[in-house]
């Protein structure tokens, strides 16, 4: 029974005046959020570090707040753990998809609920059919016995959503669910979100992608510096008013738009990276590329098309079966990151936590780690070296200078991504490989990163960029290589193509 206030039923969820401090950082100062009923999509938005994940952590039982109230249907609650939150019908699907890869789809869907424990008396077939029921509710066509390791990222995410539904979640939190999905996968996720909404589930959705959030949102809450600064129906906002609310000021003019193509790279410009006949068994077939000085080339394609594998092989982080490589006309044989860096190649990997950053070190140390101009070793340089460059790059990406001494693990996800990119902007390698360079960064920081990447290209670096966002490739690149099942199926000059052509080619359809 929900509580009735002034003749009205209390809202399904209300957070009022929520505060949370981590050491010296006041992550939440006065966070408020209201969801009146089920059957709505509520978008939470704010700059990197504004407190979104902390707020979701409070709501999902992962973080204990210091002050303020959280109430469900008028009753104050304080969750001591995610399990306690789940018991109240609040479930979260986090950015880092948490599935057990060796268990089956059905086992994952029922994980944590006890149904798969045989000693508990529940049969395999009963478990399987329960899981099947939830998968049908999601219209998710997958074999319940298939090991999760065989699924694509979007399918794994669906398994997590199914798990939340098994727990009878009334409030489902999706924290940046689209950040590792390609455009077509986002479409199917949105179909699922709409289906759940029609079934009465309230969905809290975090995204930095402006266009898609207007597509899906009923209501929006904006956080700035730990404070809720705006809330209302999606129709009451425009992209511009949202950015103004996030920033607390009018957005700077002319940051986005304008492709780097206008800078012009001609066939006379020297080739910085030449790749011929690259083969990575099971992933890449006969990949060829001449990447010129000052050029920005994009890689487009579906998940599994071989895009990341191309970058990883060039950097020597992954083996290859065939292929030759040249850097500035000289032969180069990839063999581990250290050799690549010594040859003037930089790499921003897709998984910043595992490969891109040393989380135990400070932001400053991470940013200067590869700025060892002659020595190929990855080592933190002497204190103070390159300080001016680091300060300039940090400022250009809106990284607070006070963060320099902060442990990188303590940064918000988007700010970690900025550091992963910034360390190469400090170094300015001759060839920079970037895998999803703006994953999880806010809309302003994305424009800042693009601007800085254009600047290092204009200064002579050659960039190869993998992105699942076609818009990003069209904004940033001179040309785009479209990959399908390991092969390049098109090499398109950016002014002469558009997202629908790229999408078709990426799906294996001829244009
Ligand atoms: N465990 C922690 N220890 C110290 N500081 C933290 C911790 N978690 C978060 N913070 C700090 O709290 C602030 C808010 O971080 P939070 O992750 O909530 O931001 P966010 O809005 O989710 O950012 P993003 O969009 O980048 O994911 C940041 O300054 C962050 O550095």
UniProtKB/TrEMBL annotation:
InterPro entries: AAA+_ATPase, ABC_carbohydrate_import_ATPase, ABC_transporter-like_ATP-bd, ABC_transporter-like_CS, P-loop_NTPase. Keywords: ATP-binding, Cell membrane, Membrane, Nucleotide-binding, Repeat, Sugar transport, Translocase, Transport. The keyword Repeat applies. GO terms for molecular function: ATP binding. Residues 13-250, 265-510 form the ABC transporter domain. Residues 247-266 are annotated as: Disordered. SMART domains: AAA. This is Sugar ABC transporter ATP-binding protein. It comes from Nocardioides aquiterrae.
